[in-house]
Amino acid sequence: xxxxxxxxxxxxxxxxxxxxxxxxxxxxxxxxxxxxxxxxxxxxxxxxxxxxxxxxxxxxxxxxxxxxxxxxxxxxxxxxxxxxxxxxxxxxxxxxxxxxxxxxxxxxxxxxxxxxxxxxxxxxxxxxxxxxxxxxxxxxxxxxxxxxxxxxxxxxxxxxxxxxxxxxxxxxxxxxxxxxxxxxxxxxxxxxxxxxxxxxxxxxxxxxxxxxxxxxxxxxxxxxxxxxxxxxxxxxxxxxxxxxxxxxxxxxxxxxxxxxxxxxxxxxxxxxxxxxxxxxxxxxxxxxxxxxxxxxxxxxxxxxxxxxxxxxxxxxxxxxxxxxxxxxxxxxxxxxxxxxxxxxxxxxxxxxxxxxxxxxxxxxxxxxxxxxxxxxxxxxxxxxxxxxxxxxxxxxxxxxxx
Length: 402
Hints:
Blueprint: H1 9-13, H2 43-46, H3 54-62, H4 71-76, E1 81-87, H5 99-109, E2 115-122, E3 125-134, H6 137-141, H7 157-163, E4 167-172, H8 174-183, E5 191-196, H9 205-215, E6 222-227, E7 232-237, E8 242-246, H10 252-255, H11 261-264, E9 276-279, E10 288-292, H12 295-302, E11 308-311, E12 315-316, H13 320-331, H14 338-351, E13 354-355, H15 356-377, H16 382-385, H17 388-394
Parallel strand pairs: 2-4, 4-5, 5-9
Antiparallel strand pairs: 1-10, 1-11, 2-3, 6-7, 7-8, 9-10, 12-13
Helix pairs in contact: 13-15, 15-17
């Protein structure tokens, strides 16, 4: 294939920034990778931390914005269907059962797409992200397992243009997908599919190391980890063992500043601009949560229907008291003794929120925290940056003075 630069003078005049350059979003940059390409020309409109326009993009992508009279849509975005699912035969080494990888492989094998933008890791560091355009199932499988660090997924967009690909699947998180959707019409593609994952609290590689060092019994052997519905962090180790640490036992006083400022100012936890979202937080323990946002998303899910079992989403418990108590606890960096944290975790696991109510608990906890962060650190951005649905969610709680 010959190298092709999009036929626009805007692209010819624009030059990617060097990796060490200061980004237009400055300290709020999520390192999505757009500024590493000539699409930097569009960064003012595309960057989620310079211009927040989710409602406009929802209408563009899904043909409507979310219905704020429907509580599920304020929380989870525009959707056609929602369910819990898991593969009959899980993919070995996958973080969950491998639904994301399976969809990507089916799309590639059936010729729906010519490439899949996904994230492998470098040879020297399993947690250092390396975005690629996968063109074989093996390359897709090499990207399984989440990378909990800031990742420049969109840095490969110039390679897409140079390859001549016209049908593409992109797997990514909210800030990456908002930027992608803003420049979508400039990519010269005939078909773009977006498979999203929910995302919250990413870190730099150094920040990740601090989290592992302060939380895990064996930081050097952690293969992956996840904050789970049982109110514990689950660490998977090289020997196959699982280590769990209760949320309430985290060393919050040491970790308050470890998360990237971009994540502390993000209000798109559920990846509202993807066609299909696969995560875990709205599903029972051991299942994945699937949100179909539009017809493209349903087509993608249909490809693996014979590989998965599904069940309706459920919701149980009441999150609000737990969220209200968590606001000052996080704000003050409260860290409980481990014995007390384990007791609290057992009690909340037994009587606390489950299913969609757990998902709302997680969203409420992060949105109240992030709203306070923006109010304190970027008060001039507060009104324009916080979407209406997030303001509605935050308004349910009493916040400490800024």
